Amino acid sequence: MKRNRKIIVYIAISADGYIARADGDVGWLDRPEPKGNYGMAAFFKTIDTILWGRKTYEKGIEMGMKSSFAPGVKDYVFSRRRQGVLLPGFEPATEPIKPFAERLRAQPGKNIWMMGGGEIIGAFLDEGEIDEFSIHVIPVMIGDGIPLVQPRHRSVPLKLISTRKFPDGVVHLNYRVLPKA
């Protein structure tokens, strides 16, 4: 099914598949960035909406985030519990995932960045609402932590769209999520 606005998980993981340490620490991501920051600037031009899980949003605040990444970008925070006051530019996502995603996709606009974390990625994946994974594998193993997708029994077929390697050992993998058979 062709969708006008794709929901894309654009994320970095350790070589052993974690997006953060168990306590949410992402210090292992700190590294000299090559020109173009692994394609982040180009990716950012393709989106106008960011979806955040509550824990990822709170980690962003802990790391110094004061508002949305950029003017004109809509930010939604998903949480099972009632949200307090959110940072400027952020809105609570209050409806179930399927109708929220359908409503968002029906609006004109660019693609949608699924920021994470693992729980919200898994929930959207289970509802068939993730179109692509754009994963930067960082050449470090952290041994334990928060997995890319919340663990549960699932089988999600993917099609490799592209790969790119960087001089520092980072590898970018871009996958399309295929329909379930």
UniProtKB/TrEMBL annotation:
Q: Name one GO biological process term.
A: riboflavin biosynthetic process
**Pfam families found in the cross-reference section:** RibD_C
GO molecular function terms here? 5-amino-6-(5-phosphoribosylamino)uracil reductase activity
Question: Which top-level group of life is the source organism from?
Answer: Bacteria
Bacterial bifunctional deaminase-reductase C-terminal domain residues are 102-171
**What InterPro entries would the database entry show?**
DHFR-like_dom_sf, RibDG_C, Riboflavin_Biosynth_HTPR
Q: What is this protein called?
A: Bifunctional deaminase-reductase domain protein
- Per the UniProt record, the source organism is Candidatus Sulfotelmatobacter kueseliae
